[in-house]
Each structure stands twice: as C-alpha cells, then as structure tokens.
Amino acid sequence: MEITREQRIQKLIADAGYCSRRAAEALIADGKVTVNGRLAELGQKAVSGRDRILISGKPLSAPPSRKLTLAMNKPRGYLCTNSDPHDDRTVFRLLPPEFAGFRLYCAGRLDKDSEGLLILTTDGDLTHRLLHPSQQITKRYRVRLRDPFPRKDLPRLLKGVRVEGDLLRAEKAFLLGPGNAPESSDQLEVHLHHGRKREIRRLFEGLRHRVKRLKRIQIGNFALKGIGPGQIRVLGRADIRALLEEEKR
C-alpha cells in the first residue's frame, strides 16, 4: 500500500502540492522542515501518513485526492506567483472559482511581460519532470524584436553568449517572415530545453537586440491552440503525455 512506502521528503512535499520538488529541497537545506521533531536532511525518507512532517512549524497537509493540471494562455502583465506584496495581478487571479480549493503551482514561469503557454498543476512529480534539465523537454517561443535580426547571426544564438556569468544559448532558432529564407526579420522562433530566468531576453540583449514581445507556444508536443488569452484548459492524460514528449519534427 502507498501509505507504507518510504519516499524522499522533497517528493512527499511536492506531492502534497506545497511547492515543487526543487523548492522543497531548498526548504530542507534552509532548515525549515522537520520530521518527527528533528530537522530533515536532504535525501532523507519518510512515510506519508505515518511520519509527522512540519514546514516552518506547520503540518504538511495530505496530498490532494485528485491531481489537477491546467494549461493557461497567460496574458502580458500578470505574475507567475501565488502572491506578491507589491502586485496582486497574478495568474491565479484569472482562475475560475471552481479551482479555488486546489493548491496550484506554476510548472515553469513566464516573466510579467511575456505571454503564452503556462502549466499550472498540483502534481509535484510532473513539475519536476517538466523543469529538470535531464528531461530535455523542448519549449518553443515566438519572439518579436525591436529591430530585424540578420540570418547570418543565427549561429551565434546556438553557440550562445555569456551574460553575468551564465552561458545563454538556444537549441534551435530560425527567422519567420515572408518568403522561404528571409535575410533578416524582426520575428523568430526559438527553442530551449532549459529555461533560466528571462533567458531569451538576456540572450538577445547579449547580442544587442531588444525583445519587444515574447510568447511561449509549445511545450513538448503540447501546443497552445484553441485557448484564448487569460483562458484555461483542464489537461487529461493524453495532454500530459504530450507535454513530456519530444517536439514534433
């Protein structure tokens, strides 16, 4: 039975919908998690329903009986956070009332000025799989620049540039526009496996180009289709499988 199986504490926390597995590891490292009255350690295991897990002194709630995953077409101007003391325009304010009882988290964020496909879920394991670099899940973005980007500089996007100590690069990039092979365009499609904070914007800034508009259009094989700005779609098993598949060629 599931209740008798030992699991890593960070997984139990994520499965309870408290936060992502990576965030749970940070809580453990910061000494904010106890198990049966003792500070938890990274890699430690426990049993859900048997061991008493506290986070910042508060008991970890039981995992939700039903996992929920939503796809949202995030509009510009909204934050991917559950709360912000300086700005209450978060993506969670866009959710219909029937989802108020679910503890949802963003499985990969978009910055305030970006838009497009955003995954909200109670499933900590799914969040971990979508975000961990070893999974190599491709995210596709449409980029509009302030000025045209020359075709000859596309290899520089793939080779990457170092910005503030980070090597930023695209897995794939091509120009969009009239004709089969424009020599330059202010619109591109960019593919990433990873996703550091504001990575695409910083990558283009490193090449002296300013991003005017940024939209995520696909994760894995799941594309943003039929979901209007600010709207959501409840994902089924086939949709979640598509999220975790390699992109279509």
Structure description:
By secondary structure, the protein is of the alpha+beta class. It folds into three domains: 2-59, Structural Genomics Hypothetical 15.5 Kd Protein In mrcA-pckA Intergenic Region, Chain A; 69-134 and 221-243, Alpha-Beta Plaits (2-Layer Sandwich), CATH 3.30.70.580; 138-219, Pseudouridine synthase, CATH 3.30.2350. 18% of the residues lie in helices and 30% in strands. It has helices at residues 9-15, 21-29, 124-131, 154-159, 199-206, 237-243, and strands spanning 7-8, 33-35, 38-39, 45-46, 53-55, 58-59, 69-74, 105-106, 115-121, 139-150, 161-163, 166-168, 172-176, 184-192, 211-219, 222-223, 232-234. Helix 1 (9-15) packs across helix 2. It is elongated, with a radius of gyration of 20 Å. The mean pLDDT is 88.
Topology (elements, then pairings):
Elements: E1 7-8, H1 9-15, H2 21-29, E2 33-35, E3 38-39, E4 45-46, E5 53-55, E6 58-59, E7 69-74, E8 105-106, E9 115-121, H3 124-131, E10 139-150, H4 154-159, E11 161-163, E12 166-168, E13 172-176, E14 184-192, H5 199-206, E15 211-219, E16 222-223, E17 232-234, H6 237-243
Parallel strand pairs: 9-15
Antiparallel strand pairs: 1-4, 2-3, 2-5, 5-6, 7-9, 7-17, 8-9, 10-14, 10-15, 11-12, 13-14, 15-16
Helix pairs in contact: 1-2
